[in-house]
């Protein structure tokens, strides 16, 4: 089932397109890695898809009323600022705001599940602003998970996390997809993207240049053209391994 449909989505700054005529569909069961160099339009695409930026073309999410959109998709922005010294539990509970009629027990269980997925059960009573940057990032992911939407859009969710936390977060997103939900996440680490995503969407200068399985998208030609690098790519019993080796331009 389609959970996100973009048709000729275009976002302009002045007369310059930042996202240029992007059409794609995301279905349940997919973990889509949105990749591309800095300035490729990844953040803009995610924000426009959520209806947070003016755009031309169509987004199935942006077309929804705000109340329904909050139940259809959760959005994790790149910014990780936590403004108030609240407990981790209280912060994660904010993910339940779109579900006012769910009931206290359903809300508690959703928060418990989110904390458990992110390995934060022991952080429940700690003050969120007193945590490290990486710990705060995990709490904000948990808040998004507590929203329990069919679709999750995340902008660089694993940036700045230590290797273990990066892998665990990617495993959580992959598990959501395996449960029938969908995740679209912008990711700079191509190795993590290759290892955990079911599909990669590659952007360059705002345009979609490749879309498919990691082995199909991360070709030598695409890497040279879009990123200007050469890399090692191999399939192993533990999954694909991808490592940039050098700059070619």
UniProtKB/TrEMBL annotation:
A Pfam family recorded for this sequence: ABC_tran
Alphabetical keyword list: ATP-binding, Nucleotide-binding, Translocase, Transport
GO molecular function, one term: ATP hydrolysis activity
Superkingdom of origin: Bacteria
InterPro entries linked to this entry: AAA+_ATPase, ABC_transporter-like_ATP-bd, ABC_transporter-like_CS, P-loop_NTPase
Residue ranges annotated for the ABC transporter domain, each copy included: 4-230
Its job: Part of the ABC transporter complex HmuTUV involved in hemin import. Responsible for energy coupling to the transport system.
Protein name: Iron complex transport system ATP-binding protein
Source organism (scientific name): Cereibacter ovatus
Taxonomic path: Bacteria, Pseudomonadati, Pseudomonadota, Alphaproteobacteria, Rhodobacterales
């Amino acid at each position: 089932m389609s959970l996100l449909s973009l048709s000729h989505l275009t976002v302009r700054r002045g007369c310059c397109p930042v996202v240029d005529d992007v059409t794609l569909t995301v279905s349940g069961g997919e973990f889509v890695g949105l990749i591309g160099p800095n300035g490729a339009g990844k953040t803009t695409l995610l924000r426009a898809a959520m209806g947070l930026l003016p755009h031309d073309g169509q987004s199935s999410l942006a077309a929804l009323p705000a109340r329904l959109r909050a139940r259809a998709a959760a959005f994790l922005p790149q910014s990780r600022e936590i403004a108030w010294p609240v407990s981790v539990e209280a912060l994660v509970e904010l993910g339940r705001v779109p579900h006012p009629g769910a009931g206290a027990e359903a809300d508690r269980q959703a928060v418990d599940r989110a904390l458990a997925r992110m390995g934060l059960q022991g952080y429940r009573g700690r003050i969120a602003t007193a945590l490290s940057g990486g710990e705060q990032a995990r709490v904000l992911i948990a808040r998004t998970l507590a929203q329990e939407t069919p679709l999750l859009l995340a902008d660089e969710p694993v940036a700045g996390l230590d290797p273990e936390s990066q892998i665990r977060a990617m495993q959580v997103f992959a598990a959501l997809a395996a449960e029938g939900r969908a995740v679209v996440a912008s990711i700079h680490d191509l190795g993590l993207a290759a290892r955990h995503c079911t599909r990669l969407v590659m952007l360059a200068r705002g345009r979609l240049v490749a879309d498919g399985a990691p082995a199909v998208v991360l070709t030598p030609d695409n890497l040279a053209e879009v990123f200007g690098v050469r890399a090692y790519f191999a399939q192993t019993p533990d999954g694909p391994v991808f490592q940039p080796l050098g700059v070619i331009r």
